[in-house]
Design goal:
380 residues, Immunoglobulin-like, 5-stranded mixed sheet, mainly beta
Length: 380
C-alpha cells in the first residue's frame, strides 16, 4: 500500500462529490502512467492500477524527478505476473491543490519518462508536467546536452545515462531448532530478506530444470529467471558457440563470485559447441537452499549484452532479475568481464558435469524458518 506524506494520504473516507481517477501503471508493457497527470480537488481519489511487470509510484520533487522525496509517498515495488486479472490497485486521496510529482523507481524507468503528476501547472509554465518529464529524461536518461544548470559540460554532445545502482541485498543471522527423522538439530543460518516460505527439507519429488545456454545464437539463457526448490537440480545445456555458466553476485553480475567475495562459486568453464552439433554438452548444479543465485556468461562482452540468469530471485523488492540484468549491462559496459574458465573440465557432448552450488549465504525467510545450512549438510 502507498504510505502517506505531504498533503497526500491513503484513506477510504467518503467525500461528497469526490471524483475518482484511474491511473494505469505500466499498461501494455509501456513505461508510462496513463494518464500522465491529473487535475484533482481535495478529497478526490487516485486509483493506481499496477500492470505487469514490477513498478512503483514514488513521490519525488520537480527539481529531482527521479530521486525519492524523504518521507514521501511510496507504493513500494508491486510485482505483477503476466495474466493477472484483475491487476492490483493502490489508492491515495488528494488533500490539497498543490502540485505533487511522482516516478517509478524501477531501474531505468524514470529516465525513460515514467513519471506522473497531480495538479501540475499548465504549459508554458516552466514547472509544467512536460518540463518535469523532460527534466527526468535529461537527468537520468539519454538526453543530449546538459541536464541542468548544475551539470558540467562534457566533450561529448550526448550525456551518459545516470545509472542508479540498486541497494545491496539484505540478510540477517538467525537460530532455529528443527526436528527431522527423529533427531533434533540446532542451527545458525542466514535469513535472506524476501525469500518465499518453503520447507527446509528436500522436495519429495525433486525436479530438474533445464536452461538452454545461447539458444539460436542469442546471447541469453532460456529461461533466464527460474524458481527452484531445495533438492532440485538445474541443468544447463550449451548450444553454439562458446559460453560459460559462472556464478556471480547481485551487485557484481559480470564478475565471478570468488573474485568479488572470496567465496568459491560454480563455474562450468568454456564450452565450445560446433554450429552443426546435435548432441549438446551440459553442466548441472544442485539447489541446496533458497538463497537467490546469480550467474553470467564469462565470454568477453556477453554479460554486457545481457547474458545473465537468476535462480530464486526475489521479485518483490529491488534485488530482482530486471535490476540484475540492468546492472549487468551497466557494469559490463564499464569493466571487462571476468574469465569463465575454471578447474572443471569440459564434458563431452551428452555427458553431465555435476557441481553443487557453493553459496556464501543460505537462503531463508525473515520469518525464521526456511533453510538450514547445518541441517542440509547432515541430510544431503
Amino acid at each position: 500500500m502507498i504510505t502517506t506524506s505531504l498533503g497526500l494520504t491513503l484513506a477510504a473516507l467518503p467525500v461528497a462529490f469526490a471524483a475518482t481517477f484511474t491511473v494505469q501503471v505500466g499498461a501494455g508493457g509501456n513505461l508510462t502512467y496513463d494518464p500522465e497527470f491529473v487535475l484533482a480537488n481535495p478529497g478526490d481519489t487516485i486509483n493506481f492500477v499496477f500492470n505487469p511487470k514490477n513498478h512503483t509510484v514514488t513521490q519525488s520533487s520537480f527539481d529531482t524527478p527521479c530521486v525519492a522525496l524523504p518521507g514521501g509517498v511510496d507504493s513500494g515495488f508491486v510485482p505483477v505476473p503476466a495474466g493477472t486479472n484483475p491487476p492490483p490497485p493502490s489508492q491515495l486521496v488528494v488533500q490539497d491543490t498543490s502540485p505533487h510529482w511522482f516516478y517509478c523507481r524501477q531501474t531505468g524507468h524514470c529516465g525513460q519518462g515514467m513519471v506522473f503528476a497531480i495538479n501540475p501547472p499548465a504549459d508554458p509554465n516552466p514547472r509544467s508536467f512536460s518540463a518535469f518529464k523532460a527534466l527526468a529524461i535529461a537527468q537520468n536518461g539519454t538526453a543530449s546536452a546538459s541536464a541542468s544548470s548544475s551539470t558540467t559540460s562534457s566533450a561529448s554532445s550526448t550525456a551518459t545515462s545516470a545509472f542508479v545502482t540498486p541497494p545491496p541485498p539484505q540478510w540477517q543471522s538467525a537460530t532455529a531448532t528443527v526436528t527431522f527423522d527423529g533427531s533434533v538439530y540446532t542451527t545458525t543460518y542466514t535469513s535472506y530478506d524476501g525469500t518465499p516460505r518453503t520447507s527446509p527439507y528436500p522436495a519429495a519429488n525433486p525436479v530438474d530444470h533445464k536452461i538452454v545456454v545461447g539458444p539460436n545464437g542469442q546471447l541469453s539463457y532460456s529461461p533466464a529467471n527460474i524458481t527452484a526448490s531445495i533438492g532440485d537440480t538445474v541443468t544447463f545445456e550449451f548450444h553454439p558457440k562458446n559460453h560459460t555458466v559462472t556464478q556471480s553476485s547481485f551487485l557484481h553480475p559480470c564478475e565471478a563470485l570468488e573474485v568479488t567475495s572470496g567465496t568459491p562459486g560454480f563455474k562450468s568453464g568454456f564450452r565450445p559447441v560446433d554450429a552443426n552439433a546435435t548432441d549438446f554438452p551440459t553442466f548441472q548444479i544442485k539447489i541446496n537452499d533458497t538463497a537467490p543465485i546469480w550467474g553470467y556468461c564469462g565470454q568477453t562482452g556477453h554479460c554486457a549484452a545481457g547474458m545473465v540468469f537468476a535462480i530464486n530471485a526475489v521479485e518483490s523488492g529491488p534485488n530482482n532479475f530486471e535490476n540484475f540484468l540492468a546492472l549487468a549491462k551497466e557494469e559490463g559496459n564499464q569493466t571487462s568481464t571476468s574469465t569463465g574458465s575454471s578447474s572443471a573440465t569440459s564434458s563431452a557432448p551428452g555427458s553431465k558435469n555435476t557441481n553443487a552450488a557453493v553459496l556464501s549465504r543460505v537462503g531463508s525467510s525473515v520469518f525464521l524458518g526456511l533453510t538450514f545450512f547445518g541441517l542440509m549438510a547432515v541430510m544431503l
